[in-house]
Design a protein that fits this description.
heterodimer; A: 294 residues; mainly alpha; two-stranded antiparallel sheet; B: 312 residues; two-stranded antiparallel ribbon; 2 strands; 74% helix; globular
Chain lengths: 294, 312
């Protein structure tokens, strides 16, 4: 193990923050979708994976990372529209487990389809030339691309916050997650709101995928581990709470990253120990049982 | 005929499975159906009868397999019964601890938590390579002969092992029948229909759910334990989420909440896998698509739909 200095510790904490950002993007999508339609989207990890693969394809096709960064999440979001409209919608009104089961089947189909198209071997996704190299943060050098990931996530989160808090559509979404029946009675078409929110949530997963690609590699199973970690984030933060997803996402990212530094073997295990502790102390999660935005 | 089967499911089960090895293309498939059917039976107790969807049943299957495997390969206990007991003990203990944590959250959290705890065990199994063999799997399990009072029967032929497994699985089927027919079983199904109401009727629903969880883990553990004896090896994938997914698919294909659905589903899944794997490596794609179609259009599964068609 390298000598433990404050600088290595800080660098590792920064790495944890980057992983945390990816988890936040995934957990917020899961949480939004769950908050509004009580659907747990098991395919969220596969959509994350698809985002990375589409990113790879689009970069090869258009030679532009920036274009891919915008288009890949939009394509994943469009697929999300289709999933909600044709697969999840027939299940509303049935058991709360049914959408979870369906999206589980969907994730199997997606992983195998991606293997058929792009092969079983993982791909590498290079960060754009403009973001290659490292920056001096004063105490340590840190890859520029990772700083960019943090920046993008912050911008997206702020935009999402403004959208939900300041726009009329956002108001309907928040109201719909509180009392869908009342919103319907007031004459709003909740079906379109569901479609929109499912699309936003899945697009965020796609964005997380293309952002994570250059750091974590692109392979068909990449969504599996991260979806389980995102579930942990949602459990720790409290389902339906966006603030919870942010706090817990960053916390879990740090737990993984810092445990890797001290005891690499325990990194994966620590996540679940933290989850068990939260369950013991606060079963509803850190920010659970409050409204969508509180 | 039909009502006789409904009242004597264990006898019906024994009759069908006594001749089952002669109905399938090869004997190994019959043993697999038996063992995976038992696994699905355990899952079905929790999901089909108690209404709790576990996405982490690999944990108890794996604990059963590793318990038996470690007892025989590492501790060299040399007795079939002790090996089985080790697997069952580990699975029940795991079920009690994980069940306690997962049942702290209701509804949809439950599925996510069971999945997370199973993944935790997978990583533990992965890193405890001294005991579990880690990534290579646990090897060197020797199958001891079956020691009964007065006789010792070697289980070295696949048919001998099949009938040994059948005896144990039939015992488990009888135990499940007994559980479902008991007042406890009635409370389970009351919880599935309406948990709040069951608790308002004065039943300690959290205790009943935990007990159901532990029973379910025991069945899954016995299945895992038998699989370790069948294969003489415990692959690390036993604890992986794919194993949890398999049992979900099997049970739903067959029909959750029906008595024989799990065996029908296990047979369907294994035959599908067996046939499809010949044509394409992408067989999970086909299985996944069929599973989705079942969730959308045939939520009662094959057996459940058949029963509904035949009428009461």
């Amino acid at each position: 193990m390298a000598e433990l200095t404050l600088a290595t510790l800080a660098a590792q904490a920064f790495t944890g923050l980057v992983l945390g950002m990816i988890l936040v993007l995934l957990a917020i999508g899961l949480s939004l979708i769950f908050g509004l339609m009580t659907v747990v989207n098991f395919a969220h990890g596969s959509l994350y994976m698809l985002g990375a693969y589409l990113g790879f394809f689009l970069i090869g096709y258009t030679k532009s990372f920036w274009l891919a960064l915008v288009v890949a999440p939009l394509l994943v979001g469009a697929l999300g529209f289709g999933i909600e409209r044709f697969l999840v919608r027939p299940l509303y009104g049935r058991s709360i487990d049914d959408p979870l089961l369906l999206t589980f089947g969907l994730s199997l189909v997606m992983v195998e389809t991606v293997r058929l198209i792009w092969g079983k071997i993982g791909l590498t996704l290079d960060p754009p030339r403009e973001l290659a190299g490292a920056v001096n943060l004063g105490f340590t050098y840190f890859p520029l691309y990772r700083l960019f990931v943090i920046g993008v996530t912050v911008v997206v989160l702020v935009a999402l916050f403004v959208f939900l808090e300041k726009t009329n559509v956002g108001l309907i979404i928040r109201a719909g997650s509180r009392d869908p029946l009342m919103v319907k009675a007031l004459g709003f078409d909740l079906g379109r709101v569901w479609l929109l929110v499912f699309g936003i949530g899945t697009a965020l997963a796609g964005l997380a995928g293309i952002l994570a690609g250059p750091m974590r590699g692109v392979y068909a199973e990449m969504g599996v581990t991260i979806i389980i970690e995102s579930f942990v984030v949602v459990v720790v933060g409290g389902m339906g709470s966006l603030v919870g997803a942010i706090v817990a996402g960053i916390a879990i990212g740090e737990v993984v990253s810092l445990t890797t530094l001290f005891a690499p073997k325990f990194a994966e295990i620590m996540v679940f120990i933290v989850m068990a502790l939260v369950l013991l102390v606060r079963p509803s999660g850190l920010f659970g049982e409050s409204g969508l935005m509180e | 005929m039909r009502s006789w089967i409904a009242t004597h499911p264990v006898v019906a089960f024994l009759v069908v499975f006594a001749i089952f090895p002669y109905l399938v293309p090869y004997k190994a498939l019959a043993t697999q159906v038996l063992i995976y059917g038992l696994f699905a039976l355990g899952f079905n107790l929790l999901y089909g009868y108690t209404g709790l969807l576990s996405f982490g049943h690999a944990a108890y299957w794996g604990l059963g397999a590793y318990g038996t495997g470690i007892a025989l390969a590492k501790l060299k206990v040399g007795s079939l019964w002790l090996g089985l007991a080790a697997g069952l003990g580990l699975a029940a203990a795991g079920g009690a601890v994980i069940g306690f944590f997962c049942l702290r959250r209701r509804g949809i959290y439950f599925a996510m938590l069971t999945l997370a705890f199973a993944q935790l065990l997978y990583f533990v199994g992965f890193h405890l390579a001294d005991w579990t063999g880690g990534d290579d799997g646990l090897r060197g399990i020797t199958l001891p002969p079956l020691a009964l009072p007065g006789v010792t029967i070697p289980l070295d032929t696949s048919l001998a092992f099949y009938y040994f497994a059948l005896a144990l699985v039939a015992t488990a089927v009888a135990a499940l029948k007994r559980i479902l027919d008991s007042p406890f079983g009635a409370v389970l199904q009351a919880i599935r229909e309406n948990s709040e109401r069951a608790s308002a009727c004065g039943y300690d629903t959290s205790r009943v759910k935990l007990l159901s969880f532990v029973f379910s883990a025991l069945f899954a553990g016995l299945a895992g334990s038998l699989d370790a004896l069948r294969l003489n090896v415990v692959p690390i994938e036993s604890l992986y989420w794919t194993t949890s997914g398999q049992v979900v698919i099997m049970t739903l294909l067959g029909g959750a909440g029906t008595f024989f659905g799990p065996f029908v589903g296990a047979a369907t899944f294994l035959v599908l896998e067996d046939r499809l794997a010949v044509f394409t490596e992408s067989w999970p794609l086909v299985v996944g698509a069929i599973f989705m179609a079942f969730v959308l259009f045939l939520p009662k599964g094959i057996w459940g739909t058949l029963l509904a068609r035949l009428g009461p």
